[in-house]
Amino acid sequence: TLKTIGHQWYWSYEYSDFFNIEFDSYMIPTAEMETKGFRLLDVDNRITLPINTHIRVIVTAADVLHSWTIPSLGVKVDATPGRLNQMGMLINRPGVYYGQCSEICGANHSFMPIVTEAVTTNTFTTWISSL
């Protein structure tokens, strides 16, 4: 289970099935970008999820309406304050998937990217154990 919380103007994530691991994910400002990466798309903390595993995603917001969207995975869920929206997904291939907030939520709405790294189950287990 991945819990996703939209804030003005970043995302928070909780892996509650694994010792309640929590972190925030902010867009990397252009001035701090290294030579690699995508401008306005990369974040400081990526979501890491296992492939070929049914994943439950719970989405909410802390302040205003947001929408958690990853187009290449066919995922779009509204994040509404005071409400938990749930959906399931299955990622078939390893890779990096990019998304964004798709609900106009204020001045910095366009600075809320989402980056999901899909890895093998063994890699995911190693990653989650290292936190």
From TrEMBL:
This is Cytochrome c oxidase subunit 2. Belongs to the cytochrome c oxidase subunit 2 family. The keyword rRNA-binding does not apply. It is a multi-pass membrane protein. It comes from the Eukaryota. GO terms for cellular component: mitochondrial inner membrane. SUPFAM superfamilies: Cupredoxins. One of its GO terms (molecular function) is copper ion binding. Its cofactor is Cu cation. It is found in: Mitochondrion inner membrane. The keyword Mitochondrion applies. Component of the cytochrome c oxidase (complex IV, CIV), a multisubunit enzyme composed of a catalytic core of 3 subunits and several supernumerary subunits. The complex exists as a monomer or a dimer and forms supercomplexes (SCs) in the inner mitochondrial membrane with ubiquinol-cytochrome c oxidoreductase (cytochrome b-c1 complex, complex III, CIII). It holds the Pfam family COX2. Keywords: Copper, Electron transport, Magnesium, Membrane, Metal-binding, Mitochondrion, Mitochondrion inner membrane, Respiratory chain, Translocase, Transmembrane, Transmembrane helix, Transport. The gene is COII. One of its GO terms (biological process) is ATP synthesis coupled electron transport. Signal peptide: none annotated. Its EC number is 7.1.1.9. InterPro entries: CcO_II (IPR045187), CcO_II-like_C (IPR002429), CcO_II_C (IPR034210), Copper_CuA (IPR001505), Cupredoxin (IPR008972). It is an enzyme of class 7 (translocase). Residues 1-130 form the Cytochrome oxidase subunit II copper A binding domain. It catalyses: 4 Fe(II)-[cytochrome c] + O2 + 8 H(+)(in) = 4 Fe(III)-[cytochrome c] + 2 H2O + 4 H(+)(out).
